Structures
1.
Amino acid sequence: MKLTLFIFIAFSPLFLLAQKKEEIANPVYPQDYFRNPLDIPIFLAGNFGECRPGHFHSGVDIKTLGHENEPVHAAAEGYISRIKMDKGGFGHALYLTHPNGYTTLYAHLNKFAPGLQKYLDKEQYEKKHWDVDIQLSPTQFAVKKGQQIAWSGNTGASSAPHLHFEIRNTITEHPLNPELFGLPIVDKTPPVPAELIIYSGDFYYETPLNVTLADHGGTYKPVKTDDKSFRVIKDTIQVPDAMAGIGVNVDDYMDGSENTIAFYTAKLYMDDSLQAQVILDDIGYDETRYLNAYADYKTKQLHHKWVQCLFQLPGNHLGHIFHNLNSNKGRLDFTDMKEHKISILLTDDKGNTSSIVFYVSPQQMATPVQNDCTSFYVNKANNFSNPNIAFSLDERQLYDNICFKFATIPANEAYSDKFQLHYPYVPIHHYFDLQINPKRPIPFDLRNKIVMLYSDDKDEDGRAAVQTDNGWYKAKVRNFGTYWLDIDTIPPVIKSLQKDNSNLSKAKKITFEVKDDMTSVKSFSGYLDGKWLCFEQHGNLFFYDFDAHCPKGKHKLVFKAEDENGNAGTFSLNFVR
């Protein structure tokens, strides 16, 4: 009978579901398989799950003593499965596939190990492209654990020398939290909550009734009661609503580093009953942009602070980082109008914990103000058009309902009026087609020179626009803000950064700075004595490191850069090496 009962419980659907949830919340990863990819101790400048503009940080940023060219080693045996060269992002990157089901990524590198570097050079010159993405077979570049594969650098979207290191599930390609794999990291410092924010109302951004997060909420600075405990200055917070959400701005630290990093888990309790839990692990690149629904986008845009919400917005489809959510998706229900104790428990990757304890007293709800606007609803398609502008948002574009604001601003010099589409501090999940009707005829020879310009009230940029069948112009955009049409006939400006353009006998490289006034550099090329030369892009800089493709002697170099509207600039250089 006992055996039968055990079998029934062990294989019942509820038991299996509970077991699966426990496995997800407490993943078990190999602890001695991967080594430190560097020869120096690990100190982190960034960790997994950190909030970054438009994405979660997908690995750990390991410091390299403030300089480049630290030897980088394979963290485990396997083979080089991918080489990717990019002007932004990971810059020079290597991917290693391992036989235990994981793939490691090494990014922002400089040169690769000699055999790999030689292979890369050959591929680049055959393809006549610097930015290549090469898939490799298991037999081409097998590596052993600890074998040097590259040197660290500062390439791609990197602001200081470091090594970005990831561990991914090979099948799903989802990055996992590397600190859960037993890497030798010393950390005995618990997370430090910097701010606590109470969000009133049922909606995140402007609703049709204009209820906003900040309008009826408040910001509070926790104060320390001991090394691991915090409270708010006012023990009791008054909330003018029967429903509220909680957000936290947290700084975590590791021993020996001044950089702030992210917490690993956060648990939210009301009267000691768990209401929500956030666990930052296993976030795929296909879903990482939902960071803009998880973090308070408006506060980041306006006040440059990362506030992480311990409740799930209706349009946030990154559901698997949330656990044990109550029936209100983590919002707290105060309809009984009684005072309640609220606790938040924060834990970092090494198990160090801290807590915040305070009380919430609900007050009478504020009366929302009706506004003249167009209602856009989350998880539904939303369309907008008038005689001069049109766009459609699919059901995955918004994270919450919004009260859409629109305005037309006369612009005499441009080829259309300016159109304010809501506010830049409200996020859009992915690109959509925006169409604008020019207000005056466009000459035939300028129809491929139209640019759609954008302003977020701070900066301006643009992208090439193409004509539609009805004579309007469209471009793919991904932000609310102000848009208008204009003409772009100005080529990129190319500036040589050589001290002496004619004599480069002592130089190590040739560098040009290229800037475009309205759009961006779409393509570039360099030809030395009529033969293609491998120039690399890093932001606005384009450079070639001298190698065997440029022998000693006299040479003529022609460098060309073209923008999105086909405007091309050329710089010719006669020099001696």
2.
Amino acid sequence: MATQEYLDFELTIEALPNDQLRVTLANSPVGSATVDVPNPITPAEAERIIKILDGTRRVPRDEATRAARVFGEKLFSAVFSGQIYGAYLASRAQAAERGLRLRLNLDKAEALYDLPWELLHDPSSDYLALSRQTPIVRYPRVIDVRPVVEISLPLRVLVLISSPSDQAALDVEAEWRSLQEATADLRQRGLLELERVDDAQLIVLQRKLRSGVSYQIFHYIGHATFDERNAVGMLAFESPRTEQTQLVSGEELARELVEQNSIRLVVLNACQSARQVHNNRFSGIASSIMARGVPAVVAMQFPISDEAARIFAHEFYRALSEGYPIEASVAEARRAIKSELGNLEWATPVLFLRAQSGVLFPKRRTFTERPSYGGLREALLRPRVLLGLAALLIVALGLVSLLSSLFGGLSAPTPASPSTPVPIIATFTPTPDAPRNVDLVITRVRFLPSNPAPGQAVTVAIELQNNGTSDSGPFDWVWFDTNAEAENATPALRGTVANLSPRAKTTVIGTYRFGWWGTYLTTAWVNPDNRAPESNIFNNFVPRTLNTGSEPFTVDFSRLPDDSLLEAGVLRGDEFDKWLLRMRVETDGNAECSAAVLLLTLMDDLNQITTGLPNAPQRCANLPVIFELSQPSESPRLRSVLIEFLPTAQGEYTLEVRAADNSVQRRETLRVQPGEVGVPKTLSVTLDGAARLALRVPENARTIIRRLTRTITPTQP
């Protein structure tokens, strides 16, 4: 692990209007993707978890643990949704023992920047940040990043300890001892040096950094705060006259640190040193240092106790000195806090990393580092000796070749004598192949989200394993959205795996959208046609029940139920039958428009339903669109329908509720004023056994429908 290089899974979180998030997978082993999701975290939830973590809200430990887990799983389900979750599972499988580094870019996350993203919790496993296989790093966009360069040992750490007389006393001596204990063996071997600075003054630091010594790490122990009024992070240095607090901004500290070009890591063991104003990177302490090009900063986003800070520093430096990447070292330190203290302070540290590799201090190989063996072996390793021996060998081979050519033809063949060994021609009989032993099983089936709304993209993840002792060779897998034993059941998802080694696992994924509210008995099946001969075919399928949630069901006309893109052109009207939605044009007996059809057009990057003649889409463009509202029996009943449309002229827009005989039961009308033309509007109606809806527009307008949303009456518990 100490020499590993992670694979990257880089996510950008962007806050959008209407409380939406855009999650972009910018880089991963399996490609990129973008998903827009609702913001799952309300301001009240964010405030509650932050107050629990910063200690301003006192709750029992078990309640705090539950709150952190619920928050982390909610955040995970939003960030890792749809295609991004599928890519995450595939990337984890591909990374295997190398590990998958999660890079979070929050530059455009707005108010979500302050969330404790280190709490991301995979419902199927654990907190990601607690494992060195899935470290979480903040990955801000900065232009100037110092390159990682080779260094000659020892690694030098400059430790500045600040303890102003007017601040609450910190157990700085305990932390200093912890640093010494963690690095004692390395210091004895001449691999690392600690240098302590007790006069925590900016001028003292300035002089120390220009002393000619190359420091690779700057470590600050002391107080910090975030000035809410001026929106700036400040460190508590010591005044040279009074030894009381002299506030130093992150930008002022960064100005001094960048003068020492060898510094590649800054560790700030100070409360709130990771905070910043989301749209101003120079407002924070850590972010100011990152903006000046330092490749890595470890800082604290909440207050941290002396004991937790001591444990963190001890385990962090020990792992780092053992050669672990900085991401893995932080994960090791987090777990040490959790195991020793049992609280949530492990989530307080934040790792900002802009270097491509977490190995920040590769050692430079020098002549003195080469092992000496002595004697003949030492002589043979010298270049001049090797060249001399090579020259002698070439001369000897040349003489042998020359003598052979001069005298080889004068020699008569020598008959074989009893003492001359007779060549033996060996015939090898190949060992018969051992019988193949392949046993493919399904170890897990997962859905994300676990209770999706109908029409919502769901990632189906199926974990497969070969329990046999032979390679499987190629085999297929399928997944049914219904009972596989049902009549005319056909797979909704399928794929092929090239090979699975003995005891090896792999996760196959697909995306699916369920058609209606209710309970689905799904079935996953591996090797359904016995393409890979198995010793046991009775463990090849696993049924799994899924219950859809009661969230609204929105159709935006961008994708079909099979998840394929819906292309612009003429619509039949039955494309969404699986979602129990059928559309048609109502011509009202208009002979001129009797051939009118539904058309799908692309406007402002959105698919929109319009009407018109196939060869003249501008004609008959104002016809009503009928939506059939059939639904299964014995299923949750529709409560309401909302239609979003784009008004193209002023006047009345009407949504009619019709019975089975097409008679109008009631109407909802919206009058659009001149200044509202071109601004999306909605009409919604409640339903009571209605069979269809019809949207009517003014005669001089065009019918443009953007999306349709259905809701049900939730089942009472």
3.
Amino acid sequence: MSSRQLIECVPNFSEGRDPEVIRAITDEIEKVSEVRLLNVDPGKATNRTVVTFVGPPEQVIEAAYLAIKKAGELIDMSLHSGEHPRMGATDVCPLIPIANIDMAETVRYAKKLALRVGQELEIPVYLYEEAAQKPDRRNLAIVRSGEYEGLENKLKDPNWAPDHGPAKFNANTGATVIGARDFLVAYNINLNTTSVRRANAVAFDVRENGRVKRKGDSIKGPIERDKDGNAIRVPGLLKSVKAIGWYIEEYGIAQISMNLTDINTTPLHIAFDAVEKCAQKRGIRVTGSELVGLVPKKVLIQAGEYFLRKQNRSVGVSEEEIIKIAVRSLGLDELGPFDPKEKVIEYLLDDISNKPLINMNLMAFADETASESPAPGGGSISAYVGALGISLGTMVANLSSHKRGWDDKWEFYSEVALQGQKIKDELLHLVDEDTQAFNKIMSAIKLPKASAAEKANRKQALDNATEYAIEIPLRVMETAIKGYQVLEEMVSQGNPASISDAGVGALCAHTAVHGAYMNVLINCKDYDNSAYVTSATSKAKALFDESAKQKESIVQRVMEAITP
């Protein structure tokens, strides 16, 4: 696994209508090596563009600095108008830890960026969320209160002196808020109304901060206060959710605009359902929703599984199908096409060149195998045959979950199918891993060997590559054997009409194990580490014997059941 540190940066620029300005800003980001621009999401009504990019920390904050600088040069806040709250050309610039970096270190990078922006660009900078240096500045809404129009007077107040940069009003750039936070999902839910007041009523129902309490529960009654004079609030239904209602002229509808600040506490689908229920109580219907910026894949997977379970449907279907269910159920395509490949972080970061085989169609895969190239070879084919075998078992589970009269068993079959999907995905991953193992050996062979040091380096690289080439087929064997549990349960309890499919799955599983076993043996044959070879071949033999036993048991039972 890679130990490379990655952080995400999601700056919001106060320009959503001029594509040339937006492009000039994002061009600055793309100048920085190792930084990948993932998404540019402009909004005309909000006159705001949300940009997402990812990379190593130092490179990310360099790209952020260049983008903030360019935005300050091209955006004149004195001329700006839009639906979204804002106080600067670069309104907010959060850093989010993604891989191999904790929040504390991410905070240090946020502070480093803020210091540079304040000193070199002379833009007032406030630190918020985890990077906040004062407790009352953690909340972005509080920091941004008064917005751009109130910024000049705000900067005169010693209590609102910026954390970095001059306490001086810059009419062109305004101020910038920089911080570090956990992953936030910006999510808008569409309503069949144009009323902002009614949309706000729904927003107050669901957001954590709720609404102020009024005497007599009247919307016009006097505000109830505690002994210190603070307004008493009635909390909303959802934790870690900020929400307001607004009207989007571009679409001609009102929306509930939400920030889900902790998707583990309140996932997307729970927020959607809560808004739907509260809207219905007020005579309003939810018609769809919209994601602003990017989301982790798990957000849509969890939503898809949630809606499938509500229908008493199996969740053990393909990732693509689960995400399709999520998109349809949430109405994410109501206002325009929704392409998961453009909205899901993992898909945008996924380098297809590292997985050339499993991205091929069947004909291309067969043609590549039949070519004069030595890879893909028996190892990759073994893994793929194993994936096909467990796919058959998973199919039987999904068919069984739909069988008429078996409605009370759908959860059992769903769990079996889900387990099958996980095994299938691991075997598909190993299809390309086996070819990568072969490539590592070929690369080691090509290393120079003129000097003693070069020979030693080459020998070590060859040893490492050889052991990797042995470990991959061992993993294929172990993973394929896991599939027998799914196949066994489907022979015993699955739809009788599909029992032969489970039998074919067992034959495929054993073919995968047998083929991988041969790969272990041939890769061990010329390896001079006898202790390693003895251990690996002994393990492989035990796995092979176990597979043969389980395959024979399943196939025998299938044959007894289907033989006339």
